[in-house]
Amino acid sequence: MPEPKAFIDTNILLYLLSTDVAKADRAEDVVRTGGVISVQVLNEIANVAHRKLAMPWIEINAVLEMIRSVCPVVPLTIEIHDRGRSIAERYKLNIYDAMIVAAALLAECKILYSEDVQDRLLVDKQLQIRNPFR
Predict the structure, then answer these.
(1) Partner residues linked to 102 by β-bridges
(2) pLDDT of 3 strictly over 80
(3) Domain total of the chain
């Protein structure tokens, strides 16, 4: 039986760059099973890689290109924005996490791999949050 359609949050993908071998390996497993991302995820990876990890742009671009080659990317839309605000209010999530949840819902994903949102939270009776490191 195939895995349900999944969405991968930024924090999971950033572990691909980690020196924590166990978490990097688990992040690779998640990516290998397949998952959708949004433009927000790409923006957040670029920001963290540049500001916190001090990676040169040539390396950041290579990482983003690799991720885009294995993960379908959904655009940011006003529909995501509107749904995200509603989710933030209803589930008491920060706005950026709520936008990730909204993008996952609108991409018709059943699973959201994230370390930032409450593990096992069921959103709108259709999206299960899963922390792959638990």
Answers:
(1) none
(2) no
(3) 1
